[in-house]
Amino acid sequence: MALPLVFSGEVAGAVESTDPIKLTLHDWTGQLITTRIMGSVLEKAGYNVEYVQADYLAQFPGLRSGDLSVAMEIWATTGQEAMDQAVATGEVENLGETGMIAIEEWWYPAYMKEACPGLPDWNALKECAEAFSTPETAPDGRYLGGPVTWGGFDEERVEALELPFQVVHAGTDAALFAELESAYQRKAPVLLWVYAPHWAPIKYQGEWVAFPPYEKACYEDPAWGTNPDMAYDCGKPRGPIWKVAWSGVKDKWPGAYQAIKAFQIGNDEMGQMIGAVDLDGKPVETVVADWVAANERRWKPWIGQ
Fold this sequence. Notes:
Blueprint lengths: L4 H8 L8 E5 L3 H16 L4 E5 L6 H6 L4 E6 L4 H9 L3 E18 L14 H4 L13 E5 L8 H7 L4 E5 L3 H14 L5 E5 L3 H4 L2 E3 L7 H5 L18 E8 L2 H4 L1 H9 L4 H12 L5 H11 L1 H4 L6
Parallel strand pairs: 1-2, 5-6
Antiparallel strand pairs: 3-9, 4-7, 4-8, 4-9
Helix pairs in contact: 2-12, 2-13
């Protein structure tokens, strides 16, 4: 085993501190699974783990102060800017990629191309917005966004690209995909925020809207892109899902720090577990326990065993 013996002894024996390592929980199934897998592995090593419900973007002051210890999923698609700002203070550390690659974008079922044949080109939405309308938004189309706490700049995108759409936010992750399920069964109009890793783009045939590709300048420089006066005239970024921690974790719990850095899981594997919870009705705790039991060879090296 490549890990130093001192690390193995520290983790497998006495933990460095019995104070709780506070892992943040958010409001989507995949993050709950990721976090509880990490927490379960840390508990196997003898650490005291506490789960704390926290807002996805508003958690960073707590991570900076050490009131929160670890956030297991910061998506490059929506959280990169907040993460980079926190890391720049020196009080938060990026612990590397989780192994998952994030895609978050406007998505429509394949059957909607009959009503809007120009898709996936985003310009088609200007001509066929009414095909995506509801009685509440007509003649404007309706875009069903994620919970407000997810960020994503959808209202800004609609305005900057001059799309005749109204953004309506789902209250929860579950409500978002329940509406997709209902619409898909009825072949009803729907345009919504879909992300990967997730079961939805595996289960349903559809496409993400092809907006102008994201560049950093799109979010920062109004002169960039098709609208010379407004930022956000592009799609959402794509990229890694990161792990971050209070910068004091590496000194207070060095074994846990190494374990969190070592954590890796893939999109397909995560999508299957999310489906087991959301589609098959299994409790998150059961899915996590099954994964931990079946993957000892993977996680034991994380904790030096």
